[in-house]
Design a protein that fits this description.
seven-stranded antiparallel beta sheet, six-stranded mixed beta sheet
């Protein structure tokens, strides 16, 4: 999502790692005005503005010059220490999730059965599933499937135990920040190298400890591959966007690199624009937008009910799905990203529906190792076990999180709000949600930098791993791990997005 809010945070974090100061040997704590910190902030700020690590300011009442009002994106001034083993684990499972999404999306019975009750309880999921069924019954027009995914993880820590990589969610629509995360990794690498060369007390950091991050470039190349597969050099990629998007620079980077690297042009349109001006040839199923043939429809919007202001926008989504343009994602891929689907994937035996239990046992094991406890709230699955977990969550709400079928953040139930929801919701209303164990992350000290101000904060992080996938039916054309995103937030934050300024773009320092 454009600003999916970070993680499940807000739980009682156990401090099992040394403070960040011990990794860098820096005396910044209680000395924020030091010459070193000033130099570090100046270098980071200059790099951010020079390389497009920026975003729009919140809209004010006066919108006349709003597009020119930008600031640097919230970042950290130094990377965050991360165990190398869990970083490699997250990369290793990315291809497995690519294949899982693709195979599950082609299982019509699975999609419909899994989301049936959630669709009844949640009108947004219901409308998406309704359109999916309509297009399925008419026959899919697009020849290829393109997925640009991001699987998000936190490190679960218990006293005296090895940290566990546990999945927060997988994003199959509008996986944002691939461009800015690429540049933030470059920023940390450059700033550290420069400061080491100037004799500052930053200490020695080996280059291999700062992993290369090509997420933005890999996404650009995957979009270009889909454009090539469509086989019309004059066709465009249409990026579907929201009005007043503060994160437009992350999107624009992709647009400019598509032209620079592949000579492919991008047009930016909203769902409302598409509803009003797109034309679908009912015979050839070719979609044109303002005279341009659309090869790829790349969604950076459409994941929240707020993007569908009226029936017009829903009709626009249907028009897109009925065309032969390659959707990223298609409705099928979009639905596989639902929280209910993720919960069902965690049920014993379900992964074996999509992977051969003998020949692909390694895939199953890698995926299953990432799952935290997830529990169905579907009333048709009522059981003593479900009653027990609901009772436990009401008694101890801080050990759980209750998630809806929503993307973009800010929709979860935590703490007292979770207890109240489980207590007061009717059984059929609960079906719109899933219940998950809260991931308990270790804390560390970091330097956050927002609106030109550096602050030492006790933080936790969430690691996202990007992956790209292109297929024609069962034939896989592209299956790559693209790169990573690290977001850091204060440990007391229950939710908080990068665009909102509560989380920072970061990069990992492998230890």
């Amino acid at each position: 999502m454009e600003d999916k809010q970070v993680g499940q945070g807000g739980g009682v974090a156990r401090k099992v790692a040394d403070p960040l100061t011990n990794y860098f040997g820096l005396p910044w704590k209680g000395n924020d005005e030091s010459a070193f910190l000033t130099l570090l902030a100046e270098e980071s700020r200059a790099f951010a503005f020079a390389n497009g690590v920026v975003m729009g300011l919140p809209r004010s009442a006066d919108k006349s010059a709003q597009d020119s009002h930008v600031t640097h994106a919230p970042v950290t001034l130094l990377p965050a220490p991360m165990p190398a083993a869990v970083f490699r684990q997250a990369y290793a499972v990315a291809n497995d999730f690519n294949v899982l999404v693709h195979r599950a999306s082609r299982d019509h019975e699975f999609v419909c059965k899994t989301l049936a009750l959630a669709a009844e309880a949640d009108s947004f999921t219901g409308q998406l599933l309704k359109l999916y069924k309509q297009v399925y019954n008419e026959g899919w027009r697009q020849k290829y499937e393109l997925g640009l995914h991001r699987s998000d993880y936190m490190l679960h820590v218990e006293e005296g135990k090895t940290p566990l990589l546990q999945q927060v969610e997988i994003n199959t629509i509008s996986a944002a920040f691939s461009a800015l995360s690429t540049t933030v990794s470059e920023m940390h690498r450059f700033v550290i190298s420069k400061l080491q060369g100037e004799g500052t007390p930053i200490g020695v950091i080996e280059p291999h400890a700062l992993p290369q991050n090509r997420a933005g470039y890999k996404f650009v190349d995957a979009l270009a591959s889909a454009h090539k597969a469509y086989d019309n050099k004059k066709a465009v990629i249409m990026m579907i966007v929201q009005g007043g998007e503060r994160n437009a620079f992350d999107q624009r980077w992709i647009e400019y690199k598509l032209y620079e690297r592949h000579n492919v042009h991008v047009i930016r349109r909203s769902l409302t624009d598409i509803a009003e001006r797109a034309k679908l040839d009912e015979s050839s199923h070719i979609l044109t937008m303002d005279g341009h043939v659309v090869a790829v429809a790349y969604f950076r919007a459409g994941y929240t009910p707020d993007d569908y202001h009226s029936d017009k926008e829903w009709h626009a989504r249907l028009t897109l799905e009925r065309s032969d343009s390659i959707k990223c994602p298609s409705l099928a891929y979009h639905l596989i990203g639902a929280k209910k689907v993720q919960q069902v994937f965690s049920v014993p035996g379900v992964l074996e529906r999509f992977f051969d239990a003998t020949e692909e046992s390694d895939r199953i094991a890698r995926i299953r190792a990432c799952f935290t406890g997830q529990y169905s709230l579907d009333h048709e699955e009522h059981s003593p076990e479900q009653d027990a977990v609901i009772k436990k969550a009401i008694a101890d709400p801080d050990s759980f999180i209750m998630k809806p079928q929503r993307e973009g953040g800010g929709n979860n139930f935590n703490g007292d709000a979770l207890r109240e929801a489980l207590t007061n919701f009717k059984p059929e209303e609960r079906a719109a949600y899933v219940l998950m164990d809260r991931i308990r992350a270790s804390t560390f000290e970091t330097l956050s930098y927002r609106a030109g101000q550096a602050t030492v904060t006790t933080s936790v992080y969430e690691l996202g791993v990007y992956s790209s996938f292109l297929a024609e039916g069962e034939k896989v054309i592209l299956d790559e791990v693209a790169g990573h995103l690290l977001r850091t937030k204060e440990s007391t934050q229950k939710e908080g997005g990068v665009v909102a300024g509560a989380s920072n773009l970061d990069s990992p320092l492998l230890i």
